[in-house]
Design a protein that fits this description.
The complex is a heterodimer of chains A (156) and B (152).
Chain A lengths: L4 H19 L14 H5 L3 H9 L5 E2 L3 E4 L3 E4 L3 E7 L4 E7 L7 E7 L3 E9 L5 E9 L2 E13 L5
Parallel strand pairs in A: 1-9, 3-9
Antiparallel strand pairs in A: 2-4, 4-7, 5-6, 5-8, 8-9
Chain B lengths: L8 H6 L18 H17 L3 E8 L2 E8 L22 E8 L2 E8 L8 E7 L6 E8 L4 E7 L2
Antiparallel strand pairs in B: 1-2, 2-5, 3-4, 3-6, 6-7
Classes of the chains: A alpha+beta (156), B alpha+beta (152).
């Protein structure tokens, strides 16, 4: 029971504001990355693509992200890349190949209970870095690994 | 009696489990009828069991490792047809989703930069051996598929 009228008013307005903020998308919950992000997957610039995907412009380089990829990829069409991290509270793992026509390759949004691990095979047009970006809370961290590609996998 | 409904001596004696399998009429009454309907049955079973997704999930030390191999061309749209010189239109998987226990365990957004017949793997906690796990994908042309498997 709410005994005082003042307290009652205070509480209702607070709850009302929070509801409006959620409704207006100010407090974006996990739904941020739920839909396929066309902007991020069309962006030619690496930083802009990361920003479109995670919402933050700069990412801190971190040695707590481990990228497993071959030093030399004989076939650029299939480059196995796995990303693990020791950073706590990771919600998203992005894999980018900055030298590709479209740098953003894959984005993993981790659900409940998911470990900081993602693995897939990517295409690489030419020799370059593989960049992994992880999002934990409102911070993003990144790491990169150079991969030498003998035969490119994007052109035709 | 209809032609297709003729039961050969073979079929009566061995009673293979394929009563609904229609037998092409050219084989009815033929000595090979039984064998033919058997091969048709096997082909149908294989076609039914074949999904575009090969899903494997294995629990080890409380962590479930999910591995999936999806059959898909994953055309980026940058490739050209070698014969005609025309650009091959993009056709790739945009989203892969994996569910377990009523929870979305992973949503992966992919692009044409992911290899043909993509492989996706991830790990999660909270699954037990025998639990059902489902995976589905959608592509940029509106195609989709899903599959269910049990955690080993």
């Amino acid at each position: 029971m709410i005994s005082s009228r003042r307290l009652f008013l205070k509480r209702t307005t607070a709850a009302g504001t929070a509801a409006v903020a959620v409704g207006a998308g100010l407090l974006t919950p996990q739904a941020l990355l739920a839909e396929w992000n066309e902007t991020a997957f069309k962006e030619k610039d690496v930083d802009a693509a990361i920003k479109a995907m995670t919402g933050s412009a700069s990412s801190e380089e971190s040695d707590k992200i481990h990228i497993k990829a071959p030093d030399i990829a004989e076939n650029g069409g299939v480059v196995p890349v796995s990303v693990t991290s020791d950073i706590e509270g990771i919600t998203d793992i992005l894999i980018l190949a900055p030298n590709n026509p479209v740098p953003m390759v894959a984005a993993f949004t981790l659900g409940e209970g998911a470990e900081a691990f993602a693995r897939t095979n990517i295409k690489m047009g030419k020799t370059g870095d593989v960049v992994a970006v992880v999002k934990a809370g409102d911070k993003t961290f990144s790491a990169k690994k150079a991969v030498k590609v003998t035969i490119g996998g994007c052109g035709g | 009696m209809e032609e297709g409904a003729v039961i050969s001596k073979f079929q009566r004696e061995f009673a293979f489990p394929f009563p609904q399998t229609p037998i092409p009429s050219i084989y009815s009454g033929h000595p090979w009828q039984s064998w033919m309907s058997f091969t048709i049955y096997i082909t149908q079973v294989n076609a039914m069991a074949k999904s575009s997704i090969k899903l494997r999930a294995k629990v080890k030390d409380d962590v479930v490792e999910v591995k999936a191999l999806i059959k898909h061309p994953m055309e980026s749209g940058n490739r050209k047809d070698k014969k005609t010189g025309e650009k091959i239109p993009p056709h790739f998987i945009t989203e892969v989703e994996c569910e377990h226990g009523g929870k979305t365990r992973l949503t992966a957004s992919l692009s044409g930069g992911v290899s043909k017949n993509p492989y996706v793997s991830f790990k999660f906690k909270g699954g037990a051996s025998g639990d059902p796990i489902t995976m589905n994908w959608k592509d940029n042309k509106g195609g989709s598929d899903s599959v269910e498997a049990n955690i080993k």
